[in-house]
Design a protein that fits this description.
It is a single chain. It is elongated and about 145 Å long. The strands form two sheets. Strands 2-3-5-6 form a four-stranded antiparallel sheet, with no helix packed on it. The protein has a two-stranded parallel sheet with strand order 1-4. The protein is built from nine helices and six strands. It is α+β, with helices and mostly antiparallel strands. It folds into two domains: 318 residues, Outer membrane efflux proteins (OEP), CATH 1.20.1600.10; 82 residues.
């Protein structure tokens, strides 16, 4: 019976190992790839860009002719009477009258003050605007993915720190119980050790809860099942070679928000061109080939038919429209001026954000170095304190203080790395240089 239980235990043990090894390990490159494929906002922005691309066509700019096929069939049954000039009267009940006409017609605007060419250029600019908006959506989402991912890495590091402090708290409780057994410590020391151990366990549970919830949040951003479990890498690697001048130069070329404002100015300029086209004549040509047939039970002509080509042209010129032309041109010019102001405003805001974020980035890099030293000192202090506690030369309060100092130092070091990574992500996002 014992051998059977041992065999079952071994099977369960190996099953757990296989399950742990099968757990998905995601790198930041993996989550970025999944986000690009699955994220709903990116998909919507991609579809909007497809709409903009589809709109770029000569036909949508009214540059192509319009060809229509028509057919009209009229029928009537009437009681008719006619009196001719010579006094002759003719009457017919249920007189039938039929007419049928059909054909193909072409209508083509051949000159509209070059409005159609400005419209086509505007559609192309709107496509570029859609591309900039898609880029902005992608960069924003990738930034969110990166921040959430490295938040998980930070939390994972904190979980490791809390696990280690529980191990230390267990050792402390065991030492306190042993000392109480041989009469070298009071029951109060044992109770204090137990309370501190329980406190550490509560903190660990809270941290595990936060860790699981953040995993769910990341799965949501990745647009996949919220219950999919995975692991993240153990370390946060911060790019410590970013330079403000290079970031500023990249931002002026690649920042999607600034790029959007520049395109909007170009769209406004093309809108003014279309409005100015109203000062020129509008010339259209038209042609068609039509067939017609008619039948009448009463009248001079009982049946007729015709077919043939028709053609012509029309021209119109706005002479006076209540000064609407002048008003529309003035408004369009003001909108262009507003676009210039918006570009200047966006450019200033961009460089201000870069400067602020870069200063934060430098500070966080210094904090990483400082907190790394603090962690090493706190660890050394804890080891010394633990040795002294074993031989009973320090109080439990001193031991607990050293233990908490070590845990807090590890948490601060992890948080410093995370904050520096967030600064790096923010700078690359502003520069339009976030890798995806």
């Amino acid at each position: 019976m014992n051998s059977k239980n041992t065999f079952r235990s071994l099977i369960l043990f190996f099953f757990c190992i296989i399950k742990m090894n099968a757990q998905e390990i995601l790198t930041v490159e993996d989550v970025v790839k999944i986000a690009l494929e699955n994220n709903y906002e990116i998909k919507i922005a991609s579809n909007n860009l497809l709409i903009d691309k589809t709109n770029v066509s000569p036909g949508n700019a009214t540059m192509l002719p319009k060809v229509t096929a028509t057919i009209v069939d009229n029928n009537s049954v009437q009681n008719s009477s006619q009196t001719r000039q010579d006094g002759t009267e003719t009457e017919l009940d249920n007189a039938k009258n039929n007419s049928l006409s059909y054909g193909i017609g072409l209508d083509w605007t051949i000159f509209d003050g070059l409005r159609m060419f400005a419209r086509l250029d505007q559609l192309k600019e709107l496509q570029k605007l859609g591309e900039a908006q898609l880029k902005l959506t992608i960069i924003t989402k990738i930034s969110d993915v990166n921040a959430t991912y490295f938040d998980l890495v930070q939390q994972q590091q904190q979980l490791a720190a809390l696990d280690s402090t529980i191990v230390i708290s267990n050792q402390r409780l065991t030492l306190a119980q042993n000392r109480f057994t041989i009469g070298k410590a009071s029951k109060l020391e044992v109770l204090n050790a137990q309370v501190d151990l329980n406190t550490d366990k509560v903190t660990l549970l809270r941290q595990k809860e936060l860790f699981v919830n953040t995993k769910i949040l990341l799965n949501q951003i990745l647009a996949r099942d919220a219950n999919i479990d995975f692991k993240v890498v153990e370390k946060i690697v911060v790019d410590n070679e970013l330079l403000l001048p290079q970031l500023s130069a990249l931002a002026e070329k690649q920042n999607p928000q600034l790029e959007t404002q520049i395109i909007n100015k170009r769209v406004s300029e093309l809108q003014l061109k279309q409005i100015k086209a109203g000062r020129y004549p509008n010339i259209k040509i038209n042609t068609g080939y039509n067939f017609s047939e008619s039948q009448s039970s009463l009248g001079f002509v009982s049946q007729s038919a015709s077919k043939g080509l028709n053609y012509g042209f029309s021209a119109s010129l706005n002479l006076f429209d209540g000064f609407a032309q002048n008003r529309n041109e003035k408004i369009a010019k003001i909108q262009i001026e507003n676009s210039k102001i918006t570009i200047e405003q966006q450019n200033l805001a961009l460089h201000s954000q870069l400067s602020i974020s870069y200063q934060t980035y430098l500070t966080n890099l210094e904090l990483i170095a400082l907190e790394e030293k603090n962690e090493a000192i706190a660890k050394q202090n804890l080891n010394i304190t633990l040795d002294k506690f074993r031989i009973g030369t320090i109080t439990t309060l001193e031991f607990r203080t050293a233990q908490l100092n070590y845990v807090n130092a590890k948490v601060r070091y992890s948080n410093a790395q995370f904050q520096a990574k967030l600064s790096e992500i923010a700078l690359k996002e502003l520069a339009g240089n976030l890798s995806f």
